[in-house]
Amino acid sequence: MTATITNNDAHAIRHAMRAAERKRKWRAFFLVAPLALFLLVIFVIPIGALLQRAVENPEVIATLPKTLETLKGWDGSTAPSDAAYAALAADLGKAKGSSAAGGLARRLNYEIPGYRSLIFKTIRRMPLTGPDGKTLSDADIRTRLIQIDKHWSELPFWQAIASNNTAYSPYYLLASLDLKQNAKGDIVRAPAGTSAFLDIFGRTFLISAVVTILTLILGFPLAYWITTLSKRRANLVIICILIPFWTSVLVRIAAWIVLLQRQGLVNKALISTGITDAPIALLFNRVGVYIAMTHILLPFMILPIFSVMQSVPNTCQRAAISLGSHPFAAFWRVYVPQTYPGIGAGTLLVFIIAIGYYITPALLGGASDQMISYYVAYFTNQTINWGMASALGFILLIGTLLLYSLYRRLSGRELGLG
Amino acid sequence: MNTHKILCALSLASAMMALGSGVASARDLTVVNFGGANGDAQDAAFIKPLEKQTGKKIITVAYNGEQAKVKAMVETHNVVWDAVEVETGDLGRGCDEGLYEKLDWSKIGNKADYVPEAIRDCGVGAFVWSTALAYNAKTLKTAPKSWADFWDVKKFPGKRGMRKGAHYNLEFALMADGVAPKDVYKVLSTPEGVDRAFKKLDQLKPNIQWWEAGAQPPQMLAAGDVVMSTAYNGRIDAAQREGQPLQVVWNQSIYDLDYWVIPTGTPNKAAAEKFISFATSTGPQIAYAQHIAYGPVNKQAIGKLDSKTLANLPNSPENGKNALFSDNSFWTDHGEELDQRFTAWAAR
User: Fold this and answer.
1) φ and ψ of B29, to 5 deg
2) Does B112 touch chain A (CB under 8 A)?
3) Are strands B228-232 and B58-62 parallel, antiparallel or unpaired?
4) Residue B1 pLDDT more than 70?
């Protein structure tokens, strides 16, 4: 007798299956939950916060709300109304003595240098009252403000306030690309000689690319040589690579300073062997940066390549030679392609680490060898312009992602570490 | 010994913070400075004598100039620092933003006794330091005399060390171009003046080796990497005490002050005022200048120092004759713009 499945049963089965499926999904979710949480906390949220900082523009709307209200329909080419002056005096009076005033002054000083002093000079005279302590009329407040500083009668100072009437602004991102918005709101290039971030981004990628190529040229033969050694000797060489790798970067940089300076070991050796008569400048220029960065990043190239090479069987190459191939052709066309995953991982690793370098160029390079991270640190620590630091960091991140996708397109492979 | 003391002070200070403001009114006076050799000199000249005089303990804390800490204390109304040494830039900003108490000069001292730069709304000068031309007497047989000589690569061949940044370098460039120290900021306030300074820097650019940390110039001079360098006078003095043949050219140097401030809302305000008054009075100022080559802010102390000590101080009558006072309000307004331009210029 065959069992017939009634409509009711089918429904129950479907229900049970769905419940089981849901349970399975939940279990899977709980298994990856720590990872998801980890990624969220250390990756998604910080990058989101970075992007937010790069476009956030809260100072003016938070500190001068009444002023912005009165400037709402202002065309920007005629003198602002008396009410705008009165609102400004009220807003500044409120901001007196609070940290908001500092933020506002700092933000407006980016727009027009000297704005900072103007704000504090004005705030110090707040609140404005007449000789008998009575409140002043709007027109009187205007006169008083212009008496305090005649800049308050100049349009650019008002345009700077009016143009910051949004909570988010592309100001920092544009500035990171040597661009800015003019009074009309069009995006234009920053005047020549005032900004050089595009050059610095270009330099950052160039230095990283050169260091990557240098580490590959040095690292590939070295890794290959290690694979040809006996296990004991290979271990010894690996330890020789790892000991400097475990040494502090600062110590290694200091060592390079000792070696490369004008009276250093390298120059002394070159002079005593008669290769040059005068010391060569190896320090505080691009050469010093390349040498030290290549040295510091070399293990990141050798280790992935070596780990891939270890798993490449020697037999293929020998077979090719026994079938009449030239040894070099066998090496180049049979062996090298099998190490591509290692080369890919090594170059990517070195390039991406190199992009973020700043202490090495700062200590061993000249003024024209600084990479973008130097300016991120500068804006973060020294000028406390976190908007600018975030914007530079964000653009560096975008540039790196673009290069990575280009790399994937060209090499046709996912990132694999060994 | 000293680290131990700082550790003790730090743990005590943090214990205070944990106990909260209720107990804070009964706590010892806490003095905050930048530590190092300068901290030791202050310890010997200000802290120890005042402890002896009043019989009350003073806690010293070393910090790195982070005003964020002061800001956090002031905003949470839990101030555990009483007298804090700050740099000029921070003084102006912090005063504007309400981080420091406005000073009551009747409690500090007679304004006429101080050098004029030491008197500010929220701060009293602590000492005078300077950025000057330094050279190695062993490599340079004839002594350079001015920034014009610094720029003269024919007469003095070799590299020059300069701090990476616009501040000081633009002033030096203008002085090398013949601007008198008293007119430097007047010229620099105009766009043409800035152009002129950068143009002058252009001439020297191939010969400049940039430095960033104050410890670098004496090292670069001693190693022969550069023949002349801009440098902080205290660092050169320290190298001289170690026997290095380094010399300072005081002509056209730029001097600046560090200041004492009182964080807003400290329960120890009266004791802090007393400390500042003591630290800026004649006796302690003389003792301080004898410990480290930073200049007194007290005019009488300058008058009473022996000629050997005076020769190393930025603001002695002889050394201060043709020196320029760093204009900090100019740099708070224009620092970012000029540094940006400097970066673009240096990258070319």
Assistant:
1) -65, 135
2) no
3) unpaired
4) no
Test A120 with B336 for CB contact under 8 angstroms.
no
CB < 8 Å to B72, chain A: none
Looking at residue A85, its amino acid is Y
Which residues lie closer than 8 Å to B277 by C-beta, 6 or more apart?
A: B107, B108, B109
**Residue A26 CB burial class (10 angstroms; 0-12, 13-18, ≥19):** exposed
> What is the dihedral sign for C-alpha A23, A25, A28, A34?
negative
Q: Does A110 touch chain B (CB under 8 A)?
A: yes
Q: State whether B209 and A284 contact (CB < 8 Å).
A: yes
Complex ipTM over 0.85 = no
Give the side-chain half-sphere CA count within 13 A for B65.
12
Tell me which residue of B250, B322, B276 sits closest to B118, measured CA to CA. B276
Q: What is the pLDDT of residues A254-304, one digit of tens each?
A: 999 889 988 888 999 999 998 888 888 888 889 999 999 999 999 999 999
DSSP annotation string for A5-22: --HHHHHHHHHHHHHHHH
Contact B204, B160 (CB under 8 A): yes
Euclidean distance between CA atoms A295 and A286, whole angstroms: 14
- Give the integer Cα–Cα distance in Å for B41 and B290: 9
- Give B-chain residues touching A199 at CB under 8 angstroms: 344, 347
Contacts of A196 in chain B (CB under 8 A): 343-344, 347-348
CB B103 within 8 A of CB B262: yes
Residue with tokens 């407040």: A141
Q: Which residues contact A265 (CB under 8 A, 6 or more apart)?
A: A258, A259
**pTM of the prediction?**
0.79
C-alpha neighbours within 13 Å on the C-beta side of residue A271: 13
Among B267, B274, B265, smallest CA distance to B99 is for B265
Residue closest to A261 by CA, chosen among A282, A287, A244, A276: A282
Is A168 in a helix, a strand, or coil?
strand
Residue A286, chain B, CB below 8 Å: the answer is no
